[in-house]
Design brief:
Order of helices and strands of chain A: HHHHEHEHEEEHEHEHEHEHEHEE
Strand content of chain A: 15-25%
Structural class of chain A: alpha/beta
Mean pLDDT of chain A: 94
Low-confidence stretches of chain A: none
Largest interface: A-B, 62 and 62 residues
Shape of chain A: elongated
Strand order of the largest sheet of chain A: 2-1-3-4-5-11
Helix content of chain A: 40-55%
Number of strands of chain A: 12
Oligomer: homodimer
Chain lengths: 337, 337
DNA sequence: TTGTAAGCGTTATCAA
DNA sequence: TTGATAACGCTTACAA
C-alpha cells in the first residue's frame, strides 16, 4: 500500500491522481457536502493510495484557526493530571480540538516556557493545570483557564476543587466515627491552607452541635511531601498524644503520617485513623486502602474544557470561578473509635 | 510591554519596525553570525517591543526540517515514562529538538492514532515508549525507536531494560539472604515472561553452586496488576506454604503480594520477603519501602534519544537492540531468613 | 552584510 | 459543483 521512502504526498499529488483540482481535494478533506459522490470517491481513493496526510503546519498556516489547545501541567509526576486529561478530552477533543500536553520543563531551552511554545503554535486556548507559576505571563487575548489551583491568573477562568468543602468533609467523617481529638498535618501550599481552613470549620460545626470536638494542626514550612507527613505527624503525636485521627493535606503526606504512626508502634486504624486528600491511585490501591477526599479531577477537566470553549467563542466574557464539590471515599484507614 | 489584543506580530511587522528586510529578521532568528551588530540589536528590540514569536507552523512549512520528535506513551498512568522523558529530554531536547508527547488515546477521534497525528506534524522521528501496539504501522522512512518494550517493530531500533538480568538479580538477592524456597508471581506480558525466565536462570546458577534452592512460579492468565499479585500470591502460598520470598513481575503486583501476605496474617519481611520490579515512586516511598529492580528508565531514554538522532542522520543504519542493565534497590521488604 | 523573490502545503475567495 | 488564484508566515537561494 505505502512506499513511504520519499517525501510525503501533498494535496497536489492527490489532486493529480484523482484528476481534480486541489480545491476539490481540500473540500473533501473538510467534509464539505457540496461535492459530487463521484469526485469524492476518487479523491478518497487517491488519498488511500498515496497514504496522504494533510500537513498540520500548512493547515494551521492557511486556515483561520489552529484547532489546538495547549495544556500546561505542573509536573508529570503528579498523577492527578491523568483524570484531568480525561475530562479535557471529553469536552475539548470531542469538539474537534487537538490537545497538546507539556509539563513545566518539557521544552525549556528551546522555548523559554511551555507557554511560549504554545503561543508559537498559535493555540486557540490554554489550560493551566495546577497552581500557575507566579511569574507566568499570558498575553491578553489568549483564552486561558486554570484547572485546579487557587491562585488567580489575570483574565483567566478558574475551575477547581472546593478545598474548603473537602476539609469540612474530612472533619465530618472523623467526627461521625466518634473521634473527638483531631489532628491536621500540612505544609506550605495554598491547597493545604484551604483544606485546613475547611477542616477547622468542620470542627466548629460539630462543636456547635454540642460535640466535644477539638483539633490541633501542625503546618510545617515545607512542601507537602511524604517527609512532611512523617515529621509533622511525629510532632503532632509528641505534643498531643491523645489525637486519634489525622487529616493530611494530601495522599502522599498521609502516607508519611501512616509511616510515622507505624514508627511509634501504633496501628492504623485501630489506634489512629488517617485520611488523605486527592484520592490518588496509591490511596485506591488495595495494599494502602487510604480513606481520601476525591477532588474529582475528571469533572474539573470537563468543566475547564467547557469553559475554555465558551471563552474562545466569546473572549469578552467576565471571568468566573467555579468550585467542584469533592467526595469522600472511605477505605480502611479510618475507623470508629 | 505587550498589548496582545490583536493578531500576533509577524516577521513583516518586525522587519518594518526595525527598518530591515524580512530575510534579515530571519537571519537574526537563526542566530546567523553574518549580521551586523547594529541591525541585530534593532531587530531584537523590535521583537521585544512587538512581543513577536515565530509561528512554528510557518517555520516548519518553509524550513527543511520540523525539529520535532513525537513520543508515544502507552498510558499516562504508567509512571515509568516520567524518567524516560527525562532521558529523552537530555539527548533530544538539548540537541535542539522539540518533544511532543501523546498517550495512545490522546487525540483519537481527530487522528486515527497518535502516530497519525505525529506524521501529520511531519515529525523527524518517533519514540514508541513501552510495548508497541501489535497493529501499529509506521511508514518506512520514518525513523523510529522503541524504548522499553520487547516486541520488535519493523525497521525500528530498540532500547530496553534487560529483564532477564533483572530476574537473575532478584533471585540472586534472595538467595544471598538465605532463602531457599522462592516464589514468582506474574501475568500475561512479555516483560513478566522475561523476568520469570531470568529468575529461573538465577535459581539454576545458585543450585549449580551447590545451594539447595528451588523456585515455584504462578503465572496467571491476566494482566500484571495489583489484583493479579493478590490472587497469585494466595495461590502460591496455598500450594507452597514453605515459600519465604516472593518475586513479583512488577511493583504494583508486589503491592498485591504484600496485601495477600497481610491477609494471611504473615509479616513482610519477617515471614515472607517481597521484591518487585520497576522501582516506581510507590516502591521508593517510605511507607512502602519495597525492594525493587530499577529498570533505569532515564538511561533507556538517553539511549533511545541518542539512537534516534543517529538514525535520523543516517536512515540506512542497520537496526540495533540495546539492553540496559538494571539495578537492584534493596529496601525494607526483603530480609535475611 | 543586506535585500529580492520564489517557494512550502494548505485554506479561502471568487468566478465559472 | 468545480477550478483559479491569492493569501498564510516563514526559509532559502540568489543578487546586490
Amino acid at each position: 500500500m505505502t512506499m513511504g521512502n520519499t517525501k510525503p504526498a501533498t494535496i497536489y499529488d492527490v489532486a493529480a491522481r484523482a484528476g481534480v483540482s486541489k480545491s476539490l481535494v481540500s473540500l473533501v478533506l473538510q467534509r464539505s457536502p457540496r461535492v459530487s459522490e463521484q469526485r469524492r470517491a476518487a479523491v478518497l481513493a487517491a488519498i488511500q493510495e498515496l497514504d496522504y496526510r494533510p500537513s498540520t503546519a500548512a493547515v494551521s498556516l492557511a486556515g483561520t484557526r489552529s484547532r489546538t489547545i495547549g495544556v500546561v501541567l505542573d509536573d508529570f509526576r503528579n498523577q492527578w493530571f491523568v483524570d484531568l486529561l480525561t475530562g479535557l478530552r471529553e469536552s475539548l477533543q470531542d469538539q474537534g480540538h487537538r490537545l497538546v500536553v507539556a509539563d513545566r520543563f518539557l521544552n525549556t531551552g528551546l522555548d523559554v516556557s511551555p507557554v511560549e511554545g504554545f503561543l508559537s503554535m498559535r493555540v486557540e486556548g490554554l489550560v493551566i493545570a495546577g497552581e500557575p507559576d507566579p511569574d507566568l505571563v499570558v498575553p491578553a487575548g489568549t483564552p486561558v483557564v486554570v484547572a485546579g489551583g487557587r491562585a488567580a491568573l489575570p483574565r483567566a477562568d478558574t475551575v477547581a476543587n472546593d478545598d474548603l468543602a473537602g476539609g469540612r468533609m474530612a472533619a465530618g467523617h472523623l467526627v461521625e466515627l466518634g473521634h473527638v481529638r483531631l489532628g491536621f498535618v500540612g505544609g506550605r501550599s495554598a491547597a493545604s491552607d484551604a483544606r485546613l481552613e475547611g477542616w477547622r470549620a468542620g470542627i466548629d460545626v460539630a462543636a456547635g452541635v454540642g460535640d466535644d470536638v477539638t483539633g490541633v494542626a501542625v503546618v510545617l514550612a515545607a512542601d507537602v511531601t511524604e517527609e512532611t507527613g512523617v515529621s509533622g505527624t511525629h510532632r503532632l503525636l509528641d505534643e498531643h498524644p491523645d489525637v486519634t485521627a489525622v487529616f493530611a493535606a494530601n495522599d502522599v503526606t498521609a502516607l508519611g503520617a501512616m509511616s510515622a504512626i507505624a514508627d511509634r508502634g501504633l496501628r492504623v486504624p485501630e489506634d489512629v485513623s488517617v485520611i488523605g486528600y486527592d484520592d490518588t491511585p496509591i490511596a485506591a490501591s488495595r495494599y494502602v486502602g487510604l480513606t481520601s477526599i476525591d477532588d474529582r479531577s475528571i469533572d474539573i477537566g470537563r468543566g475547564a474544557g467547557a469553559r475554555l470553549l465558551e471563552r474562545i467563542a466569546d473572549p469578552t466574557l467576565p471571568t468566573t470561578e467555579v468550585l467542584v464539590e469533592p467526595r469522600l471515599v472511605a477505605r480502611r484507614t479510618t475507623a470508629r473509635r
